[in-house]
Amino acid sequence: MARLQRTLSNVAEESGRENGRVGVVGGSTAYPNQPALVGRAAFRTGSDHVRALVADPIYEIVAGQSPNLLVDRYAGETFDKRAVARTHEMSEWADALVIGPGLVDAEPDAIRSVVDAVAIEPSLEADLSNAVLTPSGAEDDPIYDAYGSLEAFSRETDAVVTLTGDVDEIVAAGDRIQNETGTSALSVAGTGDTLVGIVASLLGQGMDRADAAELGAWILGKTGELATAEFGPGVVATDVIERIPDTIR
Q1: What is the pTM of this model?
Q2: What is the Cα–Cα distance from 181 to 167, expressed in whole angstroms?
Q3: In which residues is AMP bound (predicted)?
């Protein structure tokens, strides 16, 4: 972990640029708040700019979550081919692009780049060589069905996987390591979106994908420990997000 902390420090000192821009494509009428959770986590991890692209019916909900979050919209309720061009525009703007949190009704061929758990199955036919996937243990069946194991999947596609559960695990280049931080309170809704925001921010700041996945899981776990020490069993995702800077310090 000391190596990864030095890596983050070196990225900040040597980049000679801003601390990254994160784009978030997600949300639906059933799950409108997930893009805002991702954005808040990315901001607290150090990103300078976060822009969300959401369906028109939930635009006001997401835009009202935070004055710091930039929000765009696409027409209709479903992420389909009409929204792809807007996504491509965002990908050109962003240093790291998140696709998937709360996006339960997307058309399969609209899924690209960084893919959250709800979008894993349609993304398996895409180019994942620049992707980080964040499934829970209940959401990785499509990978096992297609590849037999997460290790084989990471070798064949060059994707990085952060598998969340009682103990978070990172799988990259055929290797699997366990994260050493965390608490049972991190099973609360929204902490998966928090992890996505943390990892995306680290990617946007120039960190290698495997390092970003490993450090992101460590930051989430340690931050969950801090929040649980204060709130006990009543901890919620936003409590965790607000303590990310304490962990990074």
Answers
A1: 0.91
A2: 8
A3: 192
Does the pLDDT value for residue 117 go beyond 70?
Answer: no
Binding residues: 102, 192-193
Give the pair of three-digit tokens for residue 58: 């939930």
The full set of domain ranges for the chain reads 19-248
Residue owning tokens 């989430």:
220
Model pLDDT for residues 85-106, shown as the tens digit of each residue: 888 899 899 999 998 899 887 7
Q: How far is CA 29 from CA 33, 119, 139, 157, 235, in A?
A: 9, 16, 21, 32, 25
Euclidean distance between CA atoms 19 and 206, whole angstroms: 8
Helix, strand and coil content of the chain, in percent to the nearest 5, comes to 50, 15, 35
CA distance 123 to 116: 10
Count CB atoms within 10 A of the CB of residue 54.
28
Position 147: which residue type? Y
Give the position of tokens 């969950």. Answer: 224
Instruction: Mark the binding-site residues for (6S)-NADPHX, compressed into ranges.
Output: 102, 193
Tell the CATH topology of 19-248.
UDP-N-acetylmuramoyl-L-alanine:D-glutamate ligase (3.40.1190)
